[in-house]
From TrEMBL, chain A:
<dbReference type="GO" id="GO:0003712">
    <property type="term" value="F:transcription coregulator activity"/>
</dbReference>
<protein>
    <recommendedName>
        <fullName>Surfeit locus protein 5</fullName>
    </recommendedName>
</protein>
<keyword id="KW-0804">Transcription</keyword>
<keyword id="KW-0539">Nucleus</keyword>
<dbReference type="GO" id="GO:0006357">
    <property type="term" value="P:regulation of transcription by RNA polymerase II"/>
</dbReference>
<keyword id="KW-0805">Transcription regulation</keyword>
<dbReference type="Pfam" id="PF06179">
    <property type="entry name" value="Med22"/>
</dbReference>
<dbReference type="InterPro" id="IPR009332">
    <property type="entry name" value="Med22"/>
</dbReference>
<dbReference type="GO" id="GO:0016592">
    <property type="term" value="C:mediator complex"/>
</dbReference>
Automatic annotation (TrEMBL), chain B:
<dbReference type="GO" id="GO:0003712">
    <property type="term" value="F:transcription coregulator activity"/>
</dbReference>
<comment type="subunit">
    <text>Component of the Mediator complex.</text>
</comment>
<dbReference type="Pfam" id="PF10280">
    <property type="entry name" value="Med11"/>
</dbReference>
<keyword id="KW-0805">Transcription regulation</keyword>
<dbReference type="InterPro" id="IPR019404">
    <property type="entry name" value="Mediator_Med11"/>
</dbReference>
<protein>
    <recommendedName>
        <fullName>Mediator of RNA polymerase II transcription subunit 11</fullName>
    </recommendedName>
</protein>
<dbReference type="GO" id="GO:0016592">
    <property type="term" value="C:mediator complex"/>
</dbReference>
<keyword id="KW-0010">Activator</keyword>
<keyword id="KW-0539">Nucleus</keyword>
Amino acid sequence: MSKAGGGPGSAPGPTAAAAAAAVQKQKSLLQKADADVSSLVDNFSSLINIARVNDPPVRNSQEAFQMEMRAARMVHSADSLLKLVSELKRTAIFSGLASLNENVDRRIEVLGQQAEGTERMLERIGQEAAASLKELEAHYYSSVVRSPSYD
Amino acid sequence: MIPQSQSSSLQRLQHVEKRIVRVLELAGAVMEELGNSHGPRTDAVSAHCREFMIAMKEIQTTLREEIKSACEYRPFEKCDYSARIANEICCKKLEYVIEKLDTMQQSLEHITDDV
């Protein structure tokens, strides 16, 4: 494998960079999810507080506007969460490890079958070679060209 | 057919989507109840708020789990390295045996020629 760049210091490998990117992405997504959930809960609480009937003097217009604003923020947060869920679903479909693991399992099975077949073939070859060697030895020691015996 | 783990993950996300829509409906129901001309029913408002908070907790928990599983970096949970190496070892064995058999063949041919 060729090494890019020279000098004493070496750049981090692709695995380390990918791991760091994954960690950063996870952190950002978690923060986004927590922020949206917190926004939903806070705006809902504020909405209920604003809806409380107050003693005069009342500020109906201002409170109505605040309620609309809170409701809009809730809808916005929910929409953001739905987009996050869509992204996660896309990730689950295209980057899911289940299908990849199935492919790896299938490949392992194929390789295992090939290795097993090869081992059986080698075993058979060994047995045939051993049988042939015994037959050859029998022929040799019963032939006239056998080495003379030393008495 | 979708694999089991992938289907389970998609189902959980689908359920979260429905829960998100549900929380908005609950918020609307609470506001409608508060705007009731006969006065809001306390038990209904309480039930809706409780369901809202339970749904939010479920949404947050599920999303955090799914985000962690989706962003967790690992090349493969399973690896075919051992199987590939075993296969390569078998190939080396075959090459060695073929070499020996060729040597035996040459020896036999040599002996036959001598005879």
